[in-house]
Design goal:
Strand order of the largest sheet: 3-2-1-4-5-6-7
Order of helices and strands: EHEEHEEHEEEHEHEHEHEHEHHH
Pfam families: Glyco_transf_4, Glycos_transf_1
Radius of gyration: 20 Å
CATH topology of the largest domain: Rossmann fold
Protein name: Glycosyl transferase group 1
Organism: Candidatus Woesebacteria bacterium GW2011_GWA1_39_21
Keywords: Transferase
CATH class of the largest domain: Alpha Beta
GO molecular function: glycosyltransferase activity
CATH superfamily of the largest domain: Glycogen Phosphorylase B
Number of strands: 13
Distance between the termini: 17 Å
Strand content: 15-25%
Length: about 350
């Protein structure tokens, strides 16, 4: 098949440090190339791929403030639809907004919904029901239950790139966006109460700078550490040496890529019972799904009861790159071939 992959231009594809949407777009793109399909990736000009690369935006928007976001977002999304007749299918990883072009072409469009960027974005999904949608968890479908889903495909990772560690250090960790909805403040609260070491790494976006200054920075010390935005190598080291990963989210998680990255390293996860978390964590076997901070505290005390081998095995059986790529190829074939 001739496939166009439309990635985000907020970060490079694949990202150097942060960019979960771009990472999955890259995995899908490279996976389809390996399967023999003719793939074109629409991403930033500095992106790395074995596919053909087409770009409008030279660098990631988040790394170059001189680039006006809306200008490049529109140009980027339009470029793939201007080329649409060259492809059997367009796979959109760039939110709802590119779909406004979808009725201008006969080329089918499938969108992986990585998240719901606003409460009103459903108006786009509902209007452009001529397209197809893939959810990343069944829980995430509740935000838009009535659109044209063709599959639910969990994220997958190259498990062999994550070193398993059966004998971790004694610290807990969190990696991801530093924001209220990820519950980093709650992780700090419990780490202080239990007098354990907590290592935090991730992106502090401009809209979360005040949160960081008020809720995170004042509590940093030798035991509560903020490591900044780490690269892939350091992230994997941080995960494999951690006794437990804290994901005390305050909102319904769409999927939670770091949850499976942690488990692939053998590290159990403590996550709130919101959104996809119960689908990703096997409660009591690969971590604990908790309802409140009291339960989270007890989970942290009992983290040693979780088999780190079970954590790795769950990812190997459910969240591999090969499984994700295979399921996307089935979706492509179903759409292109028709009923």
């Amino acid at each position: 098949m001739k496939i166009a992959i439309l990635s985000s231009i907020h970060w490079r594809t694949p990202p150097t440090k942060y960019g979960p949407w771009e990472l999955i777009a890259s995995h899908v793109c490279e996976g389809m190339v390996k399967l023999g399909h003719e793939v074109t990736l629409y991403a930033t000009g500095d992106s790395k791929t074995e596919a053909r690369l087409k770009w409008i935006c030279p660098k990631p928007l988040m790394e170059d403030p001189t680039l006006e976001s809306k200008v490049y977002q529109y140009l980027h999304a339009a470029s793939v639809f201007e080329d649409a007749d060259q492809y059997d299918l367009i796979h959109n990883h760039y939110d709802a907004y590119p779909l406004v072009f979808s009725k201008l072409t006969k080329t089918p469009v499938v969108t992986t919904i990585h998240g719901f960027s606003s409460p009103q974005v459903n108006r786009i999904y509902e209007k452009y029901s001529n397209t197809y949608f893939v959810s990343i968890s069944y829980a995430d479908r509740k935000h838009a239950p009535d659109i044209n889903y063709v599959a639910n495909i969990y994220h997958g990772i190259p498990v062999e790139e994550y070193s398993y560690n059966g004998k971790p250090d004694s610290y807990f960790c969190y990696i991801g966006r530093i924001s209220p909805d990820k519950g980093v403040h709650s992780a700090i609260k419990l780490a202080k109460k239990l007098s354990v070491t907590l290592k935090i790494a991730g992106l502090v976006a401009s809209e979360n700078q005040e949160y960081f200054e008020k809720e995170i920075k004042p509590f940093l010390n030798s035991k509560i550490q903020y490591l900044g935005l780490v690269d892939e190598k350091d992230k994997k080291i941080l995960l494999k040496n951690s006794i437990g990963f804290l994901h005390l989210n305050t909102y319904p998680e769409g999927f939670g890529l770091t949850l499976i990255e942690a488990m692939a390293s053998g590290t159990p996860v403590v996550g709130m019972e919101l959104g996809s978390v119960p689908e990703v964590i096997d409660n009591g076997k690969t971590g604990f799904v908790v309802k409140n901070l009291k339960e989270a505290e007890n989970a942290m005390k009992n983290i040693g009861l979780i088999s780190r081998e079970n954590c790795r095995k769950r990812v190997e059986e459910n969240f591999t790159l090969e499984k994700m790529i295979s399921e996307y190829e089935k979706v492509y074939l179903k759409i292109v071939k028709g009923p």
